[in-house]
């Protein structure tokens, strides 16, 4: 009987736990066109950004003086590479993690996403990366819908998660070589990419150190370096400076550096959306209790 039961129950477990089945099930309950109730007493900048995304013909980017000067200036112009519209996420326990979020980020911008624990920052980034499914609303990355065309969206994304996804027994160099191969880089280019990323992220000294022996800050640097492999057009960084020493935190992020666009191993369009960062950002957004504040 066990010889018969094993393959049957194995297939049942495989079907029930397969991520694609779970995503398709969540897609059935996704309502992209539902418009949630308006949020009262919104900050004027938030209301302007919401109107720009939800009514694109009414307020073009740069119509406000604040959009054209200083840190708010868009260096490249053009359409938004990341668009979030009416985004909501409600978990099975009825907890609202993201409430009616609308914003856009253009090529070349560094968008700082700030807020207290539980505000919905990580949930928003997880939705944009395809890790979680939104309850209502839409989001696109480089024009690809993160729900209906998730695979193409993910091909344009680099992601540094909140908690390091490193393997304790691999060295820094081996991590970068492994993920470069997974990204599909040419074997002759991998050595150039690995060497360049270690130099940019300050990891050259630790290239032969296993991940378990790295400090918390150096593990974060390694996670950031992994997210930059392949020159993705959009990079999501979730607390990239957590655990780093104060001196390193005060330095600009490698993706925010002007010299980054001339690096031979990266695309000039790389643009991080950070949960927290000490590097200068083109724009900042504050979130409190799942709502967009400013």
Describe this structure as you would to a colleague.
The chain has 294 residues and is of the alpha/beta class. 33% of the residues lie in helices and 18% in strands. It has helices at residues 2-17, 19-28, 44-54, 65-68, 121-128, 150-154, 172-183, 187-200, 216-227, 246-250; strands spanning 80-90, 96-106, 111-115, 136-141, 144-145, 157-160, 234-237, 272-274, 283-288, 291-292. β1 and β2 (96-106) form a beta hairpin. The longest helix is centred in the first third of the chain and has 16 residues, at 2-17. The radius of gyration is 20 Å and the shape is globular.
Total beta strands: 10
Strand content: 15-25%
Radius of gyration, taken over Cα atoms and rounded to an integer in Å = 20 Å
Considering DSSP H and I runs of 4 or more, what fraction of the residues is helical?
25-40%
Low-confidence segments, ≥5 residues, pLDDT <50? 61-77, 256-278
Total helical segments? 10
Strand order of the largest sheet: 6-7-8-3-9-10
Distance from first to last alpha carbon: 63 Å
Principal-axes shape call = globular
> Which sheet architecture does the biggest sheet show?
6 strands, mixed
User: Averaged pLDDT, please?
Assistant: 75
Indicate the structural class: alpha/beta
**Helix-strand sequence:** HHHHEEEHEEHEHHHEHEEE
């Amino acid at each position: 009987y066990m010889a018969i039961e094993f393959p049957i129950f194995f297939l049942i477990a495989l079907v029930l736990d397969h991520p694609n089945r779970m995503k398709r099930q969540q897609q059935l309950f996704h309502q992209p066109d539902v418009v949630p109730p308006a949020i009262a007493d919104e900050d004027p900048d938030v209301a302007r950004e919401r109107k720009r995304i939800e009514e694109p013909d009414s307020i073009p980017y740069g119509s406000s003086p604040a959009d054209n000067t200083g840190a708010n200036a868009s260096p490249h112009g053009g359409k938004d590479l990341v668009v979030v519209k009416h985004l909501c996420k409600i978990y099975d326990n009825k907890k609202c993690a993201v409430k009616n979020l609308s914003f856009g980020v253009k090529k070349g911008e560094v968008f700082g996403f700030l807020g207290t624990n539980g505000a919905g920052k990580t949930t928003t980034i997880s939705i944009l990366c395809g890790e979680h499914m939104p309850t209502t609303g839409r989001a696109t990355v480089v024009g690809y819908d993160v729900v209906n065309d998730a695979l193409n969206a993910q091909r344009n994304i680099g992601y540094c998660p909140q908690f390091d996804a490193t393997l304790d027994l691999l060295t820094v160099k081996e991590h970068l070589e492994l993920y470069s191969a997974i990204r599909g880089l040419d074997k002759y280019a991998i050595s150039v990419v690995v060497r360049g990323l270690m130099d940019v992220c300050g990891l050259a000294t630790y290239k032969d150190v296993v991940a378990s022996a790295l400090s918390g800050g150096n593990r974060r640097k390694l996670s950031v370096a992994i997210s930059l492999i392949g020159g993705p057009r959009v990079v999501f960084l979730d607390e990239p400076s957590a655990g780093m020493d104060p001196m390193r935190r005060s330095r600009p992020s490698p993706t925010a550096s002007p010299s980054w666009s001339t690096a031979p191993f990266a695309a000039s369009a790389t643009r991080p959306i950070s949960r927290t960062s000490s590097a200068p950002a083109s724009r900042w957004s504050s979130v409190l209790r799942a709502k967009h504040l400013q």
